[in-house]
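Same chain as my last thread, 289 residues:
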Amino acid sequence: MSTLLVSSLCPFDTTNDVIFSRADFAAIANIVYSESGNVYTDGKATLVYSRLTPRLRIHRTDSFAEYIKLVTKDADERRVMVNLLTTNHTYFYREAHHYDHFIETMRPELIDKAMRGEPVRIWSAGCSSGEEVYSLGMALLGESRSEGLRIAAKDIRFLASDLADHAIEKARAAKYAKSALAPVPADLRNHWTKSDGDDAIIAPTVQNLMRFRSLNLLHQWPFDGLFDAIFCRNVMIYFDTATKEQLLLRFAQQLAPSGYLYIGHSERLSGPAEAYLTAVGKTIYQRTT
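reply #2:
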């Protein structure tokens, strides 16, 4: 991956206790770009400073230059740094029109496939803390508990991957504030979550469908099977055009025939993937070749 060029217009306060220069920011931005594909422009300087300063204190240094030397040599600390700088904003039933399409169009097809004894595979790529993939799991099982239990007994798996280890840990915990589940239809909440004080826990039936793993989307993917649907929403907005188009092509090639790709509301299909995918809804694409 090529070097990301960062301009020298970042506002840095030379009176800070921790020394943070424009060159430090550029070095960190290049590491983040190389490791994750995320583009960090000057406007992210304050975020970088605030999120990484505690790590400098842990390592007993007041110099970002020294910390950069550490992450250059230490792969574990480099991973910690990239995790800290990864954005993990999501919520249940985000972009509800995608769930409408999933329920109305995909769900009947997937249930028929599962009932024939065929595997059903769905990938939440960039799953963050799990709200998306649990929303999908509840939507697939549906508003009838008895039907949902029959569906769950079939060969259905959701792969939920993210670069950030802390996001995966939260997703595996499957525990959220009750208020966070407000966007989920009431029947789905009632059947597929259980109350725990002010929190709600995703039902084991839904949890058992999930396979969470840490995965860098830019690296080689450790699977060969095709997916019936891939959700990668509001992840590629942090990538440059070349990285985004390469990833879209890989997603298209990882879809089963007639499978669907769902992307974020501000993202658009472009590049070689256009030869494989046809728009069938707002930021919804179907593999047609």
